[in-house]
């Protein structure tokens, strides 16, 4: 994810790709964390112990970016 990407659209695209690739959902948080930058990366690091809970990682990233779906 670059600074110019829409975080919600990026996450939605990530989820679609993860499903297409057959990636186990317990790995989604780790994979997403490796793809984000700046504030989103800081949120991932803060939620790292919950990385197997993809929804928690996603929520932490969106919260850090002040996006409240």
Structure characterization notes:
Helices cover about 60% and strands about 0% of the residues. The chain has 4 helices and no strands. The model has no long low-confidence stretch (mean pLDDT about 90). The radius of gyration is 11 Å and the shape is globular. Helix 2 (about 30-35) packs antiparallel against helix 3 (about 40-45), helix 2 (about 30-35) packs parallel to helix 4 and helix 3 (about 40-45) packs across helix 4 (about 55-65). With about 70 residues, the protein is mostly helical. It has one domain. The longest helix has 15 residues, at about 5-20.
Residues in helix, %: 55-70%
Please compute the radius of gyration using only Cα atoms: 11 Å
**Class based on secondary structure composition and strand pairing:** mainly alpha
Shape: globular
One letter per element, helices H and strands E, the order comes to HHHH
Total number of helical segments? 4
Please describe the biggest sheet, giving its number of strands, its sense, and whether it closes into a barrel.
none
Which percent band covers the strand fraction? under 5%
> How far apart are the termini?
19 Å
Mean pLDDT: 89
Give the total of beta strands.
0
Which runs of at least 5 residues are low in confidence (pLDDT < 50)? none
Supply the number of structural domains.
1
